[in-house]
Write a structure and sequence with these properties.
globular, Arc Repressor Mutant, subunit A, Rossmann fold, DNA-binding, homodimer
Chain lengths: ~220, ~220
Amino acid sequence: MAKNPTGKGSSSRREGSGRAISESTTERLSIYLRCLTQLERAGVETISSKEMAQRFQLNSALIRKDLTYFGEFGMRGVGYNVPELRSHIVQILGLDRELRVAIIGAGNLGQALADYRGFNSEGCRIVVLFDVAPEKVGTQSRGGVPVRHVDMLEQTLRDEKVNIVALAVPSGQGQALLERAAAAGVRAVLNFVPDRLRPPEGVFIRNVDLKIQLEGLAFQLARVQ
Amino acid sequence: MAKNPTGKGSSSRREGSGRAISESTTERLSIYLRCLTQLERAGVETISSKEMAQRFQLNSALIRKDLTYFGEFGMRGVGYNVPELRSHIVQILGLDRELRVAIIGAGNLGQALADYRGFNSEGCRIVVLFDVAPEKVGTQSRGGVPVRHVDMLEQTLRDEKVNIVALAVPSGQGQALLERAAAAGVRAVLNFVPDRLRPPEGVFIRNVDLKIQLEGLAFQLARVQ
DNA sequence: TACTGTGAAATCTTTCACAGCA
DNA sequence: TGCTGTGAAAGATTTCACAGTA
């Protein structure tokens, strides 16, 4: 029973009506989207699963399987129409509506994330930072994202119609803020806090744990010799 | 044949002599280590796999399996000795020697990473940042990490005995820098560049792709309703 | 008794291989 | 011919269940 023990890597999630889609598949959809965006810019009209597979060192059957979970987008003998497939994936990933993101914690990491390009593109917007430090509240990040006091969390999340919260606070402070955000209606959280958080009912959490990644590399180095 | 198609999530790697250990197992070892560190500080002497499992919503058999890949550390009827198990894991993860980390790219993200607490602890030290911008070269991060010119990359990596490189440069510039670092003897890379890099022979890469995480959340939001 | 260590089963993911269609 | 879509096989990971032991 391969469920999702670590909350990372291969895992599945069941939804109301649809079938369960693994996290690996979702991840690859994002990768395909990038590829298709580049191809579309370059004016390429069609691409085969084999060609895409070569770019990413993937198996072409896997790409076809990933895509057929959502429909039959290809043309036998030809491949996939690039702009068409791209727009399908944009829709599948829910990037056709605006994602409004708030970051809790305006430390080094929070500020860097606020101004991170990858976050401010493709229908995604960082609208506000939160912190408790009086000298930060009222200021803006270099990129112009305003910093509000955490006391204003619930109200601001609602007023700004925030969909996704990124947690970038010190260890130990994540769970309480997660619960406050959830109570204010947020249902998706990107967690940078190096603690294991318990997701409130109906809330999705993705963990980005930099130390675990670093230790994973240390492990590989230690093993090889 | 579940190999490692995305370079993230569940994957295995074979080493010279030992058996293949999955990336999931490695990730969990880091999690156990944190837990044990806390327990040791709190003066707890022993812990059972069941107790640990409850803390992380994991299955206790999985924890036991993870640990027995590396030895028989437990005592039947009792559990595991906390300080002893902790020191075993430190050794397994290779955290008993110093990890010297360099970050290429002193933009928002690179600077934030340089001063990130999680990176500067437990035998891990950020020793240098690299950039090409003349106004950055010669300065220091807030935390005091010096910024050198990328022209000095190879020499500095060797002089500073860097084990691990973090890539935090704009899209398109990752592959060339990866290859230069590899040629200078670096064998482990933490990649923040949103491109798929091709690892040179013998080089381990871990990808941290923030946009993919965000899009994964967008997907979940789009699905539920 | 209470726990570890582990073979076997269950589950999930990826790859193979090919039918079927443009 | 060349590609997609897909059933079946292969492989990997997780869980179950229990023998064995301190």
